[in-house]
Amino acid sequence: MAQAAHESTFEVSAEQYFKAVADFEKYPDFVDGMKKVTIKPGETRADGTVESVGHYEFSMMSKDMSYNLNLKHNAGAGSVSWTLKDSEFFKVNNGAWKIEGISSGKCKVHYSLEVEFNFSVPGFILKGIVKGTLPSMMNSFYERAKKL
Fold this sequence. Notes:
The chain is an alpha+beta fold.
C-alpha cells in the first residue's frame, strides 16, 4: 500500500478552493485521466457534513477503471474525506482534504491519500506515482479555484 500526504499554500480563499474540491462532477474538466464522475445525493447531518456516494471513471496507465467512494464533506470545516466503497481495481482508496483559511485570499491545503491496487504494482512505482502526482494534482484544483 502507498501512502502520501502533501501540504501547500495557495493564493485563493479557502472557500474557493473548497468549491473546486467539492464540485466532484466537474473533475473531468481539470483532473488528468478523469472521464466521468456521478454523485448520488446523500443526507446532510446536523453538523453540516454531507454524506454521499461518488462513482468515478478514469484512465490510468492506459487502463480504464471505475470505482465508488463513500464521501463526506463539510464546507464549514473545509474538509472532504472518502473511503473506498467498491472497485475492481482498488483494494484501498482512502483520503482527505483539509482546507484552512490563512487570510481573505489565501489558504493552506493538506491532502492525504492511501491506495492499493488489486493487481500487482511494485511498491516503488506505486509510491512514485502517488507522491509524484500530488503537487501537480493540487495545483490543478488551485487553477480551477481561481476561476470560481
